[in-house]
Design goal:
Number of helices: 8
Largest sheet: 8 strands, mixed
Shape: globular
Strand content: 15-25%
Strand order of the largest sheet: 1-2-6-3-7-8-9-10
Order of helices and strands: HEEEHEEEHHEHEHEHEH
Structural class: alpha/beta
């Protein structure tokens, strides 16, 4: 989404990314060590055998190289104590350079008081890993890499103009990386509950989340789409969602009511897109109780992921 802004907005991005950078380097404080992988677990791929760079005992960081030669910075925050008998749930979070610290802290705080209201009663949240997928070299938002990873090849070549340079087309390879290579690496390090897998993303990342929901709905059980860029490629995601079969998937869809303050056309486009997604998935057969649709006030496109991350992590941690 960032590449499609009018020139008047570009001057604001540096300030906003500084905010994101500060929040992204927060980490949950703890003193326990990461539990050893269960006996008999396969070894992680060689590309991930790099030393931990975080000074937080329960946050592990390593680099993985995908099959098509792309490097990813992986950050993992693990709960304190022994893993649950069935293994940890997993929340895979995109754009981790910006959002991992906020999500890790939110998940840590949920573990401090794991009882949450759900369906008219208190339920106990389950221990859940936050697995951040970001990019090396420390860029808070890597426009070139995320555009490649999150978007399929354009059906309408004219759509490329709104990207202002970065090229799409790597979404299929990225899905293979997430669901096969990364999943194997995490499973080699931690006992994991394969029935509690969540994928979360923001903006173009949220559009990718919706794409996986349509393309491989069983790859994850829960999907979190924050401020999705539905406009991409003539809103192709609406057509794909209309033909999708969602299985047992659950979707959280969050949007600011004024995504781009001072740019009403952009805000209307974003909000109308989210509402269209809501309507399409319900019409296509997603049960009403499997959809959490939220519009929030007093936030914008750049602040919404930080405002709603506690909500997203709690959604991922539900039993």
């Amino acid at each position: 989404m960032f590449n499609s802004l009018p020139p008047s907005y570009l001057s604001h991005l540096s300030k906003l990314t500084l905010l994101a950078a500060c929040l992204s380097f927060q980490a949950a404080s703890a003193s326990d060590t990461v539990p050893a992988p269960p006996t008999g677990s396969p070894a992680a791929p060689p590309s991930s055998q790099l030393s931990t760079t975080s000074n937080q005992p329960r946050i592990q960081e390593f680099v993985m190289t995908s099959r098509d030669g792309q490097d990813y910075q992986i950050s993992v925050s693990a709960p304190a104590g022994e893993p649950p008998p069935l293994g940890y749930g997993v929340m895979v979070l995109l754009d981790a350079n910006a959002y991992f610290g906020t999500a890790a802290n939110a998940m840590e705080l949920i573990r401090q008081f794991p009882l949450v209201p759900e369906g008219g009663k208190l339920v106990e949240t389950a221990a859940t890993l936050v697995v951040g997928v970001g990019y090396p070299k420390g860029q808070v938002i890597n426009g070139v890499r995320r555009t490649r990873d999150f978007l399929q090849p354009a059906r309408n070549p004219a759509s490329l103009e709104r990207l202002r340079g970065p090229q799409p087309g790597g979404a299929a390879a990225f899905t293979t990386f997430l669901t096969e290579d990364l999943r194997a690496a995490i499973g080699a390090r931690y006992p994991v509950d394969a029935r509690r897998q969540t994928l979360a993303g923001h903006s173009l990342g949220a559009s990718y989340v919706l794409h996986v929901l349509t393309d491989k709905p069983d790859a994850f059980q829960r999907y979190v789409a924050i401020s999705p860029a539905v406009w991409w490629d003539d809103s192709r995601i609406l057509t794909d969602l209309a033909a999708a079969r969602f299985g047992n998937a659950k979707l959280m869809l969050v949007m600011a009511q004024d995504e781009w303050p001072g740019w009403p056309v952009g805000s209307t486009e974003m909000l109308d897109g989210a509402r269209a997604v809501r309507n399409v998935v319900l019409k296509a057969g997603l049960p009403a109780d499997a959809l959490r649709y939220v519009e929030i006030r007093d936030q914008d496109h750049m602040t919404t992921p930080f405002a709603v991350m506690p909500m997203a992590t709690r959604f991922a941690a539900l039993p």
